[in-house]
Amino acid sequence: MQSFTMNHGNFVISLDFELMWGVRDVVTIQQYGKNIAGVHEVIPKLLDIFNTYNINATFATVGFLFFETKSELLKSIPENLPSYNDSNLSPYHGYFETIGDDHLSDPFHYAPLLIKAIQQYPQHEISTHTFSHYYCTEQGQTREQFRADMIAAKKIASTYAIPTTSVIFPRNQYNSLYTDVCIELGISSYRGNEAHWIYDSGREIKNPILRLLFLNTGAFGKKLKRNSKRMFRMLDSYINITGQNCYSEKYLQSKFPVDIPSSRLLRPYAPTLALLEPLRLMRIKKGMTYAAKNNLTYHLWWHPHNFGINQDKNIAFLEKILKHYQKLNLKYNFQSVTMSNLAAGVLNTTKL
């Protein structure tokens, strides 16, 4: 293995671009429609502010969003559909009956114009968030069903002349059993999770007190663990619980496809937590500074629909982050890079 030397830190921004396809199994349009509809205003604003601060972002896009009409979408559905034990997870069991006939009548399920707008800025990457917002670790689905979904995602992206070389797995459900499928389909990078139990449902809990609390308690224990993880993740957005979650050249070399894990979810503005905004900003800025000073990678991510309401507050908060990036760029040569370009840099200098 050749040595890969990073002489500067890297700043990765990735967005899970999904509209209702990413939340349809947990909320309704009546409950969350304002957030989703707001994405059609948010994306142009993001493109503008990214351009101002020379940011290269990765937009991981659900395949369904590329279509202009329902009839085109239905013609492109794979034959081998996900067989989740929980049928509510699949959009193929009656949900298509609820969507509009085309992108002009339905802003919640189509986004061809937004995808074309992103393409006007070639510094950005349009990657895949799978075709159907596919859940890779849910019970019942199979490796071959995942393959069919990814083939469909690459096919529709190709109609826009978009090469697909990175993936962000919906709900961050990375399945190591599907790695060879990704390699076969030309995927060179993905976004993994932070290396802490509160971010990884499959990670063994080593703390003996927590083990006693969560294990061997049946359904109650599972619910307690899930709710505790949510609480700790929320706290970690404001105070340092899990560390800075920055990644070294050695880590980036260690896997193929290249794992570029999350450092921080950029949570949306919440009026009830407004007094804590300085802490939330400081948490992110400290992580970025640590990465810049130590030639590490910092990966910030969110969903465009997180910014769908309170848009001015969210964009203003993001601008503070990007101004900090600009300072780190000037002082430490901290570089904004897409997932695929970062992976290409690793692969060009490392024999895997």
Descriptive account of the structure:
This protein is α/β, with parallel strands linked by helices. The protein contains eleven helices and nine strands. Strands 1, 2, 3, 7, 8 and 9 form a six-stranded parallel sheet that branches. Helix 1 packs parallel to helix 10 (311-332) and helix 9 (277-293) packs parallel to helix 10. The relative contact order is 0.19.
Blueprint (SSEs and pairs):
Layout: E1 10-17, H1 29-52, E2 57-61, H2 70-75, H3 112-119, E3 125-128, H4 143-158, E4 166-167, H5 179-184, E5 189-190, H6 208-214, H7 218-236, H8 249-253, E6 258-259, E7 264-265, H9 277-293, E8 297-302, H10 311-332, E9 335-336, H11 339-349
Helix pairs in contact: 1-10, 9-10
Unreliable parts: 202-206, 208-214
Named CATH architecture of the largest domain: Alpha-Beta Barrel
Sheet having the most strands: 6 strands, parallel
What would CATH call the homologous superfamily of the largest domain?
A: Glycoside hydrolase/deacetylase
Radius of gyration: 20 Å
Helical content, roughly? 40-55%
Total of helices: 11
Structural class: alpha/beta
* CATH overall fold name of the largest domain: TIM Barrel
Any idea of the CATH class of the largest domain? Alpha Beta
Distance separating the two termini? 7 Å
Strand content: 5-15%
Q: What order do the SSEs take from the amino end to the carboxyl end, as H and E?
A: EHEHHEHEHEHHHEEHEHEH
Average pLDDT figure = 92
The 3D shape can be described as: globular
